[in-house]
Amino acid sequence: MPTLLSLRHYGQEPINHRHPHAQLVFGLSGQLDFEVAGHGSLITRQRLAVVPWAEKHACDSAKGSQCLVLDVPSEQWLDEQLGPHANASRRLLDRPAALQLNPAQSQLVNWLAASPLHDPVIARQGAALLLASLSHGHSPTHPNGLSLAMLDAHIDQHCAHPLQVEDLARLSGLSPARFHVRFLDATGQTPMDYVRQRRLQLARQLLQQSELAIGEIASRVGYSSQSAFSAALARQFGCTPRQLRSRRE
After folding, report:
1. What's the DSSP call for residue 173?
2. What sign does the CA torsion over 92, 93, 98, 102 have?
3. Residue 84 DSSP label
4. pTM (two decimals)
5. Contact present, 59 and 80 (Cβ < 8 Å)
6. pLDDT per residue over 113-172, tens digit each?
7. Is 11 left (phi over 0), alpha (psi -120 to 50) or beta?
């Protein structure tokens, strides 16, 4: 596992990989072409890329780019370091995004970039401050009126059962067609892709934080077939349920 905070230089040589931890990449100088799960973005000064847990991502910079990188160790670390902010940080780290920093957040990033990041206290508290600031500063209610926090709670509560676009649209007070358009605009994903990803994120959490049998976890996240569940995890995370379980902290 890399250190919590580090300064990294990206060049022309492309990087294309995945890792079990989540990651935030903050632009300091230059331009970094970044792609996560098929969603492309340009990371420059005062912008950041969100790389969810175990999500495949690629990047390169034609003229060079300097970034501050925050590697999030685990969900347990979020609970220990962030307390009441942990759930908001989970929502932030659950899906790919490219975000704009506000002036206070940008100032914090610049201060950390100039600090001795090898100091474990600065690294730990700096990472926690950054995540808490981002979780507070980026509302889960999108400007188009969708409450992603409400939808997340509904998906989590009912993920063992079939979920349809109509169910989520009804919660948002929209027709299915209008909801689909607004949801795609808010998240870059279709509603059903989003539901599938959230089910698998919950499955990963249960595999790493509980002793439940794999078949029971599959059922809890809406898979009646353990083989279909294993195939879905392999597509999402690149590994089997047993391999994910072996990665628990």
Report:
1. T
2. positive
3. G
4. 0.58
5. no
6. 999 999 999 999 999 999 988 876 544 444 455 777 778 878 888 899 999 999 888 888
7. beta
Q: Which CATH number fits domain 5-137: 3.40.50.2300, 1.20.1630.10, 2.60.120.10, 2.60.120.280?
A: 2.60.120.280
**44: which 2 tokens?**
């420059």
Place of tokens 């949801």: 183
In eight-state DSSP terms, residue 62 is S
Report domain extents, the chain: 5-137, 148-246
Reference 197, options 77, 59, 94, 68; nearest CA is: 94
Give the DSSP letter string of 189-245: S-HHHHHHHHHHHHHHHHHHH----HHHHHHHTT-S-HHHHHHHHHHHHSS-HHHHH
How far is CA 220 from its chain centroid?
A: 21
Query: Tens of pLDDT along 84-117?
Result: 778 888 888 888 888 888 888 888 999 999 999 9
Other beta carbons within 10 angstroms of residue 120's beta carbon come to: 10
The residue type at 50:
V
Residues 6+ apart with CB under 8 A from 199: 155, 159, 221, 222, 223
Q: What angle do CA 156, 162, 164 make, to 5 degrees?
A: 90
What is the number of residues in the chain? 249
Domain 148-246, architecture per CATH: Orthogonal Bundle (1.10)
Structure-token pair, residue 92: 């932030």
